[in-house]
Amino acid sequence: MCGPGGDGFEGEAADLEAGIWVHGVDYLSGWRDAREAAAQLGDALRLVGVESAGMRLRAASGADGSGVVRLELSPGSAREVAVLARVAAARWGRAG
Length: 96
Description:
single chain, 3 helices
């Protein structure tokens, strides 16, 4: 998410225009799926306390039309997510 008050999905048009489009590939469905997944991920990260100012989520489509979610984190937010992932892995018995 880009920060307080933003919808967090800036730049999708630029992402959609960045690649070569193949006739007959449904890029929009993949992008919509990615947008929904990005919103869910953003909500979950905010619920566990990751600062929205330190993260940016972007929905895009892959070359095959599949959805792609891009997550950019500040170093502080990346550390928070790393701690949360380690706690979850330990809780689920997957710590290495």
